[in-house]
Each structure stands twice: as C-alpha cells, then as structure tokens.
Design brief:
The protein is mostly helical. It has one domain: Tetracycline Repressor, domain 2. The chain is globular.
Length: 208
C-alpha cells in the first residue's frame, strides 16, 4: 500500500479550517448570549462539537480565541463593506457600514472590549484599519506631505477613531443609533484630516 502524504494533507487542512471556524462561531454566539467574555472553554468546545484539546492546539487559550473570533467577524462582515478606501465620495457609506456592524454585534464587542483581551483587540483592529486610513490620507494630500507625517496622521486618525467607536459601543445608550453616530463621526473628519464634510442624507420626514 502506497503512503501518499500529499493526498492526506488537504483533508487535514480542511478539518482544521472547519474546526477553527466552528470554534470562532461558537465563541461569538455564546459570548453574545451570555453578555460576557467569561465563557468556559469547555462550553465553547462542546458547542463547536470539538474536544478541548483541539481548542488548545489551535488557539492556546481563551483570550486568543476571543481575539481571533472578533477579527474573523470583522474580516468577514465589515472589511468587504469598507475596502474601497480610494473612493472618497463613499466615505459616508463606509462610516455608516462600520457603525451598523458594531451596533449589530454590540453585545459581543462590548464583552470583549471590557475583558482581558481588550488591548490585544484594539491593537489588532488598528492593524486592519491603518492601511485603509493611510490610503485615504494619501488620496487627499498626494505627495505634499512626507511619508513619516502620512504614517503619523494615519495612526492618529485610526487611534482616535478606535477610541471614539469603543466608547460608543461600551458606554452608548441602548439601542445604539448608527445613523446618529455616523453624523457625529463625519463632523470630526474635516477637523482632523482637512476633508470637506460630506452631505449627510436625511429621511424626508426628518427634514434637513
């Protein structure tokens, strides 16, 4: 009988991907249901229909699993909605998409952002959004600004935006209002970046 490792590896990789996806989905569901990040790994493993050993093999500990679950949620649902950073005219839509995403998953994000992995999540999210903000700033200012200042401004905008969203998600009144938050966020944009503020669309019944 011939041993063919190349034929076995893809199947193993698929199993790993399925178990990782199941664990992250179970984490999001249980944290949202309980309103706390303090969900035992044994319950997450049981919900995902995997062993605790698999959890430790793939993630190591609960904080890493929480972090990866949050990042997976952002990558799957939010980044595709805001990826076109070069289109400045769509920035209102991107801001609204982000606000709606965090409002929809408010219970999960609030639990993680008030847990022991909050710092790690903030750092990881900044790593995701920093390149997008740098594209916007480069598009606005072209070559008039030196690269170091571009990087500093992108970091400043990303960090400030993260703090603004975090405070809204953690401390905002229920239910969160994505439209109202987007207006607040966009009022800050020209102050920080020099962009002209976009025209905010209102429902007809609300008036201008």
């Amino acid at each position: 009988m011939t041993f063919e490792p190349a034929a076995i590896a893809p199947a193993r990789d698929r199993r790993v991907r399925r178990s990782r996806a199941a664990l992250m989905q179970a984490t999001i569901a249980l944290v949202t249901e309980r309103g706390t990040a303090a969900v035992p790994l044994s319950e997450i493993a049981e919900t995902a229909d995997v062993s605790r050993q698999v959890v430790y093999q793939q993630f190591g500990d609960r904080d890493t699993l929480l972090l990866e679950a949050a990042l997976d949620l952002v990558r799957r649902e939010l980044l595709p909605e805001i990826a076109d950073a070069a289109d400045l005219s769509a920035r209102q839509n991107r801001a609204l998409a982000a606000a709606r995403h965090f409002a929809e998953h408010r219970v999960f994000y609030r639990a993680v952002l008030t847990s022991s992995c909050a710092f790690g999540l903030n750092k990881a999210l900044m790593g995701l959004f920093l390149p997008l903000n740098r594209q916007v700033i480069t598009r606005l200012h072209g070559e008039r600004t030196d690269p170091e200042l571009f990087d500093d401004l992108a970091l400043f905008v990303t960090g400030g935006g993260a703090a603004f969203i975090n405070a809204w998600v953690v401390e905002g009144e229920d239910p969160l209002d994505p439209e109202e938050f987007t207006e607040r966020l966009l009022r800050l944009t020209p102050v920080v970046t020099g962009m002209r503020p976009p025209i905010i669309a209102h429902d007809e019944e609300q008036g201008p």
